[in-house]
Amino acid sequence: MHYAFSSRTDTGKARANNEDALLIDEAHALAILADGMGGYNAGEVAAGMAVASVGTSLGRWLASAVPETPASAIRQAMADSVSEANRAILAVAQARPAYQGMGTTLVLAVFRDDRLFLGHIGDSRAYRWRGQQLEQLTRDHSLLQAQLDAGLLTPAEAAASTQRNFITRALGIEPRVELELHEHRVVAGDCFLLCSDGLTDMLADTQIATALARHPGLARRGTDLVAAANAAGGRDNITVLLAEALGVVRSGAQQTHAAK
């Protein structure tokens, strides 16, 4: 399977700086997005450290992995790279008073042929757009989601809640953090969206679906999503990372049927 990637990040209308960070490693079909938190630009530091650390260690591991590498080994490599990043962020936070309490969410995608290995921490999300249908693949690690799961709030009450940004899991806060991992089958034409809550706090899933349906190109989709979030208020940094499964690329007499 061949993949194309595109991304867009924007400060939004209310923030002075951008505490989101992203990384695309096309050579190893790796995509990472982080949304930092903390004062004195500490969130920006945490998010940047997360994508740099995970991107370097996991990218190096993927470069050495053979095609027959078992799924369990890929998941373990993802978890190990995130644990390493967590320790590094926590060490900096403890060493520098201005960075105390800094942390970051993370959503991480590794594409291997027709499989997606997806990991996340916090409330940055991943979606799949398939056959004109949008499906959320991650479940927020947040107080709001916990209240929904417990039946303490209805979806309508949750949409109006003022506690949308209280997360229950983040990198850089505790010595250990658990990366929630799932595996998904990929078919040609699938489009995957990784995003910070600057998008999902501003737009309902139906609005995200409308933006994805409007244009086929990844770059135009990213532009439309960011513009829609800003039009809705832009109360936070907005970052979107898109990956599309174009099809199987074969050499020799069997040529690619990947979309152009």
Quick structural overview:
The chain is α+β, with helices and mostly antiparallel strands and 260 residues long. It has helices at 42-64, 71-95, 143-149, 155-159, 197-200, 205-214, 218-231, and strands at 2-10, 20-25, 30-37, 103-104, 106-112, 115-121, 125-130, 133-136, 180-185, 191-195, 238-247. A hairpin with a 2-residue loop joins strand 5 (106-112) and strand 6.
How does this structure look, described?
The chain is α+β, with helices and mostly antiparallel strands and 260 residues long. The protein has a single domain (2-247), classed as Phosphatase 2c, domain 1 (4-Layer Sandwich). The protein is built from seven helices and eleven strands. The strands form two sheets. Strands 2, 3, 4, 5, 6 and 9 form a six-stranded antiparallel beta sheet that branches. A five-stranded antiparallel beta sheet has the order 1-11-10-7-8. Helix 1 packs antiparallel against helix 2 and helix 6 packs antiparallel against helix 7. The longest helix is centred in the N-terminal third of the chain and has 25 residues, at 71-95. The protein is globular. The two termini are 14 Å apart.
User: And the CATH topology?
Assistant: Phosphatase 2c, domain 1
Which parts are unreliable, with pLDDT below 50 for 5 consecutive residues or more? 251-260
Nearest-integer average pLDDT: 92
Largest sheet: 6 strands, antiparallel
Number of domains: 1
CATH superfamily annotation: PPM-type phosphatase domain
Give the end-to-end Cα distance, rounded to a whole number of Å.
Answer: 14 Å
Indicate the overall shape: globular
**Text of the CATH class:** Alpha Beta
Structural class: alpha+beta
How many strand units? 11
What radius of gyration results from the CA coordinates?
18 Å
Helix content: 25-40%
Order of helices and strands: EEEHHEEEEEHHEEHHHE
Strand portion: 25-35%
CATH architecture field? 4-Layer Sandwich
Give the count of helical stretches.
7
